[in-house]
Amino acid sequence: MKVYVTLCLSLCVCLHKALAESDSDAILEDKDVLVLTKSNFERALKRHNQLLVHFYAPLSGQSLGSILEFREAAGTLKEAESDVRLGGVDVKKEKDLAASLNITIIPSLRLYLSGDKNNPVYCPVLKSSASILTWLKRRRGPSADIISHLTQLEKFIGGDELVVLGLFKDLEEGIVKVFYETAADIADLPFGVTGHDEIFSKYEISGDTVLLIRKSKPDKQFEMGSSTVKKDLVQFIRLYEMELVTEYNGMTASKILNSEVLDHFLLFINKTDKGFEEIYHAFKSTAGKLRGKVLFVMIDVSESRNGRVMEYFRVRSEEAPQVRMVNLSDNVQYQLPSDQFDAHTLLEFCLSYLDGKAKPKLQSEPIPENWDTQPVKELVGMNFEKVAFNHNNNVIVLFYAQWSSESRALFPLWEELAEHFSEKDDVIVAKIDIMANDVNLHLGEKNPSIKLFPAVYSERVVPYSGKRKLKPIITFMKKEIEKAMKDKAKEEERRQKYVNEQKAAVKEEL
């Protein structure tokens, strides 16, 4: 009996250990995406023969959209019981892992095959779940549809607004391979390829050529030669995939945002106004001279569905027509310093921007009455620098977005903070609606954000990244204020020393 009990206990212990080891080997998932870390990355590579990994920074504006689309693609693949798994690496948390894998661009996608972490397949950053799935599908099979007769061609070119058609004499060897490689990487456009004589005749083409077909009609063509490489074809497609002027709407929004051209010239205009045709013609004429350098986008202010984009750029319908230049890498806006919209004025403004001579547009709400009489000071663009960079005051600022519930949730905390420092004349607690007011400051993070402007002679900014609770913020402020006092004392000592040296030099001359 004792032997039996002992065997049972031993079996239970072994089973418990096995289950514990199994649990420890498990890789956590977030919305069907494997959460990859330094400790489990090698294990994930061994378990999954094909592992597509998304390297992202959660607070990065460029990463946010791709995270959601990546999750959707992961769910689709898991539901289809695909042998491809998707994993994510938060590079802010996993800095050592990112460094060991030589991750320098965020966000980025890499496909790891057969457990080999040293030779991944580099994937273009695909910002829609459909394009991620298409990219994976094109890697497994033909990257382009084979068009073998005219009826099939008509169906292919009529399926989407823009399609890419390759016409090649040899569909197996030679320059056609460049076309297949390009099709595999550009997953957001349909690609077809043909060697059919009737299709060559239809488009009056004799040599290896790539056609961009827009709304079922040939738009642009690219002749392929023996020296053509993938980069050449990709540049051609990306340059001409957008029309000279693209109207912003639900269908074009993602293509505009994902364009390789980062400088966007935006025309806000009412299409029903009398002067629309004349201004649009000038805008389009300018676009033709700057294709590939600037993306020209028209936004109809009379379209109610464009309200969000107008709110983002702070343009009211009654202010139209209006043009803005914006670079998507920093979102700094530049406004045409004129009320003339002729082709010459538009071109001169674009050229001055490209030459780095245009001045950023800084927008501000009016300074509120009694803005400084409340415990929490309400700043706007016009008084921000004067208050924040005052070397006599330590100013802590909440940068918020009025529409954000996360921002508004911090307002009571800010009132408590102001109350705590109410007896301190050299401490100012303030907030600013950063969506309604521009500041000449790189925030570098999503809102709401908190920054301290210490009482020093230099324009110093100290970001706060701790817990958003009263005690941690007070501790942070006291530490930085003490440091600022020491730095300021040293600066004053240096200044006094300089003054004394100057006085001594003058005295010696006399």
Which helices and strands, and how do they pair?
Blueprint: H1 2-25, E1 29-30, E2 33-35, H2 41-47, E3 50-56, H3 61-79, E4 84-90, H4 95-100, E5 108-113, E6 121-123, H5 129-140, E7 145-146, H6 150-157, E8 162-167, H7 176-185, E9 191-194, H8 197-202, E10 209-214, E11 217-223, H9 230-240, E12 245-247, H10 253-257, E13 263-269, H11 276-289, E14 295-300, H12 307-313, E15 322-327, E16 333-335, H13 343-354, E17 377-379, H14 381-388, E18 394-400, H15 405-408, H16 411-420, E19 427-433, E20 449-453, E21 462-464, H17 470-509
Parallel strand pairs: 2-4, 3-4, 7-9, 8-9, 12-14, 13-14, 17-19, 18-19
Antiparallel strand pairs: 1-2, 3-5, 5-6, 8-10, 10-11, 13-15, 15-16, 18-20, 20-21
